[in-house]
Specification:
Blueprint lengths: L1 H27 L22 E6 L4 E4 L5 E10 L3 E6 L2 E2 L6 E6 L7 E9 L5 E10 L2 E11 L4
Parallel strand pairs: 2-9
Antiparallel strand pairs: 1-3, 3-7, 4-5, 4-8, 6-7, 8-9
């Protein structure tokens, strides 16, 4: 009988602790601010470092023998993942104008490597090509000249 009394007393005390915890949390509810705030700019700066660097640039001067293809390669690392756009004499080069290939190693939220190769099949005189790399608000560029063989 003594043991049954101890078990019942322990059960009552254990149940009383749970209800005491629930009552304690219920008393704290009026002090919790459950309002949805407007989209306010955070005062603390993000710890993620924004990075952009061109690691491989096209050669500064590129002779173009007739009937051949000149490859211009631009490689960049950045966060967020960078994008590359080529320009010929300050006009954008679109994929249907020239062949272009981009390879992205990693996902867009981490440090990413992008390689873009532009294949130049025809040069009339002397053309300036620019590799424009963008990652977030950062911009880097690398320029080169492609000329017909024997014109420099």
């Amino acid at each position: 009988m003594y043991y049954i009394t101890l078990v019942v007393a322990a059960a009552l005390l254990g149940g009383g602790c749970r209800s005491a915890n629930v009552n304690k949390h219920l008393r704290m509810l009026p002090h919790i601010d459950n309002n949805i705030e407007s989209n306010v700019v955070a005062t603390k700066q993000s710890t993620m470092v924004k990075l952009l660097a061109i690691t491989r640039r096209p050669k500064l001067h590129n002779p173009h023998p007739p009937g051949t293809t000149v490859e211009l390669t631009c490689e960049a690392y950045g966060t967020p993942a960078p994008s590359i756009q080529w320009y010929k004499n300050d006009a954008p080069v679109y994929e249907h104008d020239m062949e272009s290939n981009e390879l992205v190693d990693t996902n867009p939220t981490s440090l990413a490597r992008v390689v873009s190769t532009l294949l130049v099949t025809r040069t009339d005189t002397r053309d300036q090509y620019t590799c424009l790399v963008k990652a977030g608000m950062r911009v880097e560029r690398a320029s080169c000249t492609v000329y017909r063989m024997g014109e420099l």
